[in-house]
Amino acid sequence: MRLSPRGAAWPSRCGPAPISAPYKGGAGGRGASSDPGRMGEPEPEPVRKTHMNIVIIGHVDSGKSTTTGHLIYQCGGLEPRLLEKLEAAASQVGKGSFKFAWVLDKLKAERERGITIDIALWKFHTRRFSVTIIDAPGHRDFIKNMLTGTSQADAAVLMVSAAPGEFEAGVSRQGQTREHALLAYTLGVKQLLLCVNKMDLTEPPYSQRRFEEVVRGVSLYLRRIGYSPAAVPCVPVSGWAGENVTLPSPKMPWFKGWKVKRKEGFGKGQTLLEALDSLLPPVRPSNKPLRVPLQDVYKIGGIGTVPVGKIETGILKQGMNISFAPANLSAEVRTIEMHHEPLQVAFPGYNVGFNIKNIAVKNLSRGHVAGNSRSDPPAAAAHFTAQVIILNHPGFIKAGYSPVVDCHTAHVTCQFAELFEKIDRRSGEKLEDNPSMLKSGDSATVRLVPKKPLCVERFFDYPPLGRFAARDLKQTVAVGVIKSVEKKPAGVTRKQAQKALLIK
Ligand code: GTP
Ligand code: MG
């Protein structure tokens, strides 16, 4: 059985992204408007290409949605008629410049405010890859949604505006350029592409000097964060005008193309699309036990409960018995689907929806983790030890401090229960045992206790479930890597408990 015959049961904006149709990844996207994106649906590719999840990050208004929308349009993923409709609707409210952004910004509040609030996913193909593109919000109020998007990504495009003053605002202390790049690195997105946008607005337009200035400035930060600038393609574009997005631009004859040097080899090309196509396919840990952090859980009429998420490690099979943590429930997988195609088996990197028996939607949610009941099933963490770096905190952090921890798709308050040792960030040497407090710039080993049920893993075992960001006061206070986890005993499932009660 297909979970979602086209246009039928599966809601258009949830579940894995249908080919060329967007959906909002967050709760805000549920039940949203119709799905005009389907109109331009290309034929599905006969050969399955390597799957890549690419997140678009960067400072607010740098042109992430516009460039992504135009890229999809130029790739044929959007009917001209639909774009005309979007243009008319956007112009009517004086926001004509957002027509491409509106391809992805579909929520009413997003369109009114002219910003992205929740992540939007869209599927398209490059020559080598089948890409799920995740358009993240730049506004700092919605960093949680950006983190959710980034936690699912194999690679990131860092969008930086070259417009006068905008590059400078982006890399300032309050800007999101550096913060987003650092968060992407911490969350394990080690492949980065730098897209220098709004080249039409430089002085003079399409200025080589400005492009080089932006690249120099951003590379400096990238190197400090841990990226190797030589491995980062730097592509000048105008997302709005569509210059150098999918075709080389006559406006930038000075641009002889981007070049990269990676340990896997050299790469070169001209356009943004070529740079996306040149990314290295992710190494998929399919030999590890299964872990699927849930991005959302849907109830679909006639089908039932459908958790949706990206397989981080292991293999998901039809008929498999899977456990959910921290809910401590298990169920059999009835059907699996990706991009409206039924699958018998799904591999790491796939964004899938799967139908399960006997678990109500209300018992599962974003942030829960699915795994194989018979092979290291996931469990709730009683507490965990992590190495953290304090990024921004106006005062001192003492034992008892409780920020929100964003790990994979979960957002749970965790208490810094014990500060074990302060470490030199550069040398890794111990500086102090049991420090009484930590401040910005410090690195330390700490024990964290989740205030609500949470499933995390040791970074060494399951990297995507073992790195996190801690937030407080609307900013990222710390980032961390998990060294060890004390798991709660699995206990009995709710069903077993009910059975036991009945027998009594
Ligand atoms: P958030 O998602 O809210 O962080 O913003 P964003 O990065 O997605 O930016 P968005 O695409 O919404 O664009 C913001 C504004 O910049 C819109 O008015 C766009 O038309 C404009 N813009 C984006 N790219 C370009 C460009 O290449 N040239 C020009 N001139 N304007 C651009
Ligand atoms: Mg946007």
Q: Unreliable segments (pLDDT under 50, ≥5 consecutive)?
A: 1-46, 500-504
The largest sheet has its strands arranged as 1-3-4-2-5-6-7
User: Kindly, what is the distance between the CA atoms of the first and last residues, rounded to a whole number of angstroms?
Assistant: 39 Å
Q: Which ions, cofactors or small ligands are bound in this entry?
A: guanosine-5'-triphosphate, magnesium ion
Largest sheet: 7 strands, mixed
Structural class: alpha+beta
Tell the overall outline.
Answer: globular
Beta content: 25-35%
**Average pLDDT for all residues:** 85
| DSSP helix fraction | 10-25%
Q: Work out the radius of gyration.
A: 23 Å
The number of strands is 25
Supply the key terms:
7-stranded mixed beta sheet, 10 helices, disordered N terminus, disordered C terminus, binds guanosine-5'-triphosphate, binds magnesium ion
